[in-house]
Amino acid sequence: MMNATAIATMAPAGPQYMRALERANQVRLARAELKRRVAMGVLDVGEVILECPWEAESMAVADLLMSQRRWGQTRCRKFLSQIPMSEKKTIGSMTERQRRTLAMMLNSSYRGRPWGTTPWVTDSLTTA
Fold this sequence. Notes:
This protein is mostly helical. It has one domain (13-123): Helicase, Ruva Protein, domain 3. The protein is 62% helix and 0% strand. It has eight helices and no strands. Helix 3 (45-51) runs antiparallel to helix 6 and helix 6 (96-106) runs antiparallel to helix 8 (119-126). The protein is globular.
């Protein structure tokens, strides 16, 4: 048998739980739309990284990179191995310097060049 205090503290859990589910659903739908727009070429991944919209803040950088056409896990892993960044790093936790460097590497003018041939790009992340 529960006392009145236990019942009173349990009552708000329902609405809070529902609000959390609603928020999670909003984020999931917004991320799906963001990934769809990236896959269609409407949004550039570099722009998303630089602007860091609310739906991308807690998203792993690998998830965003792999939403591009022809970017799978292997290509993403090889790309991120060129810079000291984990695949699980969230976009919202990236420093401004990391954002600019990653966006520069993703820029269409650099896509045709092997990433290893631009040492100045990776050096900018490791030096102060």
